[in-house]
Amino acid sequence: MVSSASDPSRTPVVGLTTYLERAKQGVWDVRASFLPQQYFDAVTASGASAVLLPPQPRPEQAAAAVLDGLDGLILTGGLDVQPELYGAERHPLTDPARADRDAWEIALLAGARERGIPVFGICRGLQLINVAMGGTLHQHLPEALGTERYRIGGGVFAENVVEVDADTRLSGLVGAGALTVHSYHHQGVDRVADGLRVTARTEDGLVQAVEVDGDDYLVAVQWHPEENAEDRRLFLGLVAAAARYRASRTGVLESPEHHGVPA
Asked: What DSSP line would sit under 190-246, residue for residue?
């Protein structure tokens, strides 16, 4: 019998981190794994299978087991990373701590990097990556930059123009120069962690994307690409990297077109 991990016909499997939140369905009012549908629609539309990864007890052990079945990892958006993790006093407007998710995502990130699993960070995901690698955050951008441009509120995504640096993995996916993106955040990168390369900023200097040099695939953006169904390039890039990672494990290298992703 061929295991699912080595099955050459299997599409890449991409894990997406989630919260545990209160949810209602009929007579039920319980905690449940929660993630907006736009995230996994973007993954499946890009040629991969999506699995949800809610926080779990004993995150290091759980992450080690979960990662054995993944070809790619997406650290999704959400509430603020705990400032205690980067040695800062809590700002009054920082979200209440979600220690379960922070610990879970830090364990997943560490395990993915050890294995060489491709990683894509979105909004909070970029911030979590920066903090996990030793960087810090601005806890409230209206105070740091004097603008509300990145979170206008009411569940409405702001549009901002970022400038993507040439000769980066990011520019290979979306092109260099100006790019209009969807923003919904009130925090941002302050000190960039060692090992991360800034690949996009807005004109006010705020970090909008990072990646790592070398062969490892780690790309993170401060915006929400899942909100733009007309532009799947960042998800296609992650899925292509996930397909290559799976091929490196199975020894079966397929045409990228098999998964609808670019080479």
From this structure: SSPPTT-EEEEE-TT--EEEEE-SSSS-EEEESS-GGG-TT--HHHHHHHHHHHHHH
pTM attached to this predicted model: 0.92
Catalytic residues: 123, 224, 226
| 80: its two tokens | 């603020």
The tens digit of pLDDT for each residue in 9-64 reads 689 999 999 988 777 878 887 787 889 999 999 999 999 999 999 999 999 999 99
* Length reported for the chain: 263
What is d(CA 101, CA 111) in angstroms, rounded to the nearest whole number?
15
What domains are there in the chain, each with its CATH number? 13-254 (3.40.50.880)
Q: At what angle do helices 59-67 and 99-115 cross, to 10 degrees?
A: 40
- The burial of 56, by beta-carbon neighbours within 10 Å (0-12 exposed, 13-18 middle, 19 or more buried), is given as middle
